[in-house]
Specification:
By secondary structure, the protein is of the alpha+beta class. The chain has six helices and seven strands, in the order H-H-E-E-H-H-E-E-H-H-E-E-E.
Amino acid sequence: MKYKQLILRTLLVMRSMNPKGILMEKKKFPKENYGILIISSFLYFLVILFSCNQKEQNIALIEYALDDRRRHSVFLEVENKSNTYIIENANCYKYLSLYNDLSFEEYKQYMIESYKKHHKFVINEEIKDISDDWIPVHNKLSTLNKKEIIGTFFNNNKVIKKGIPHEMKNEIIQRLFQLNVLCSTDCETGFLIIIYNASKEQDI
């Protein structure tokens, strides 16, 4: 409620100014309003700063993911017109390069532009000759936050707990990707592991 009152008073102050920001009637501008403007400007600055930091984290995430071309590369969440999938980045590149004759750099730029436009990976192609590489997911864990997902489904070493069904693992991968956490399949054990957390800006 206090924030709403602060915003309302700020708008009233702004109405007392002309387009150049000069007070039209000095006597109608109480001194206490200067404090309101200062506080509001500071809050606005914090919002912009948080937004820029979040954007930098997202860019770091997608660049890390798209550069991974290992045999068991990180999982991406990818949408097309008919469905949402998770797929390893190396397999996604292999598929799109096959049907669109894209070099790796062209593929990477294509995916980055898609992410910037939609805030997620969206491709126009219908998935032809679909294989097990493209795994449909249904956003079943959308209400869980990062701490809840990792605390519930992963051990302290960031390896998924035993006994979790495959369908649930797929939903976990999707939700963690939405939360700026990347997963892949460990080459030696075959277990799902967390390898990158954008909020920590480091590999795990």
